């Protein structure tokens, strides 16, 4: 790591998370913005990364050449699109740099590609990079284990801003995975992603999802565990995107020292053994 800190590339630099990351990296000791990447054809190419994120000129021009941006970097932080993240995983593995993936909505096929890249690269991937949500996932797993499926129904409710393109959110799915793990079942076999019309009574042991979209909500999640005559609700409210950005920067610095592999935020936060 150089004297000015770990050299990070932000891909998706003009996005909501990209701009947040550029501002945070600028003010975080131990890391520096090495390059900022946007998709080919973006109107932000050539603009200064600091200008587009409200910092003023910082002397880093936004580029679409990810390969050149990665060559002398030490890590990449990626909140883009599933197709973009798959390409960046290949390039980051080639460049032997740490890759932090926050992108959600990835398919099983995409996940296989991340696993393949992680044979040679250090990847941290999580549907939510905040400390609070990762703690919530540990609590969800413990609650799901403690409260039997025959008497307690688990429902996951989320709300996000109206521009979000995938549903349920990556965080809702992460919480669903935690609940399924607590009950020793596969989420894919038990999840109910939508309900409409005459659905019949709720089947015991299923894990339901409900999605709300609107306004500028950054991310609200509740895990509702409903029993006969009582209900437990575990919830998280994101008031600010910096919680994801700070987690992603911490993940990049943590990954710098690890062996190749696919890690989660639970590993970064030291919560993996608390499940
Ligand atoms: P956004 O649409 O504001 O930004 C995405 C940016 O990525 C855009 O500027 C877009 O041009 C760019 N991009 C897309 N494909 C690209 C490619 N191939 N090459 C370069 N740039 C590319 O979206 P956002 O709100 O910043 O969210 C981005 C992703 O991060 C979403 O999948 C979202 O769900 C996820 N997210 C995850 C967390 C977390 O903690 N894991 C938190 C917030 C958002």
Automatic annotation (TrEMBL):
The keyword tRNA-binding does not apply. Pathway: Amino-acid biosynthesis; L-lysine biosynthesis via DAP pathway; (S)-tetrahydrodipicolinate from L-aspartate: step 4/4. NAD(+) binds at residues 12-17, 38, 102-104, 126-129. Its main location: cytoplasm. It catalyses: (S)-2,3,4,5-tetrahydrodipicolinate + NAD(+) + H2O = (2S,4S)-4-hydroxy-2,3,4,5-tetrahydrodipicolinate + NADH + H(+); (S)-2,3,4,5-tetrahydrodipicolinate + NADP(+) + H2O = (2S,4S)-4-hydroxy-2,3,4,5-tetrahydrodipicolinate + NADPH + H(+). It is found in: Cytoplasm. Homotetramer. This is 4-hydroxy-tetrahydrodipicolinate reductase. It comes from Agrobacterium bohemicum.
């Amino acid at each position: 790591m150089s004297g000015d800190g770990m050299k990070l590339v932000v891909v998706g630099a003009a996005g909501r998370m990209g701009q947040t990351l550029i501002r945070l990296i600028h003010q975080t000791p131990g890391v520096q913005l090495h390059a900022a990447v946007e998709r080919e054809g973006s109107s932000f190419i050539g603009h200064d990364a600091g200008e587009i994120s409200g910092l003023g000129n910082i002397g880093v021009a936004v580029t679409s050449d990810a390969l050149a941006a990665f060559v002398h970097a030490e890590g990449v932080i990626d909140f883009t699109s599933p197709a973009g993240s798959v390409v960046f995983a290949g390039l980051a593995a080639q460049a032997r740099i740490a890759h932090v993936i926050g992108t959600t909505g990835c398919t099983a096929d995409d996940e296989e590609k991340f696993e393949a890249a992680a044979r040679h690269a250090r990847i941290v991937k999580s549907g939510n990079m905040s400390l609070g949500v990762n703690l919530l996932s540990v609590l969800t797993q413990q609650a799901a284990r403690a409260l039997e499926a025959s008497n307690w129904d688990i429902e996951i409710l989320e709300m996000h801003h109206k521009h979000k393109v995938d549903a349920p959110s990556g965080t809702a799915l992460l919480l669903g995975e935690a609940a399924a793990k607590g009950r020793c079942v596969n989420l894919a076999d038990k999840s109910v992603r939508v309900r409409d019309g005459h659905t019949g009574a709720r089947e015991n042991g299923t894990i339901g999802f409900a999605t709300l979209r609107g306004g500028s909500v950054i991310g609200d999640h509740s895990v509702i565990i409903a029993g006969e005559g009582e209900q437990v609700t575990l919830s998280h409210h994101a008031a600010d995107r910096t919680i994801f950005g700070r987690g992603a920067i911490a993940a990049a610095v943590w990954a710098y020292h690890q062996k190749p592999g696919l890690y989660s935020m639970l590993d970064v936060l030291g919560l993996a053994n608390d499940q």
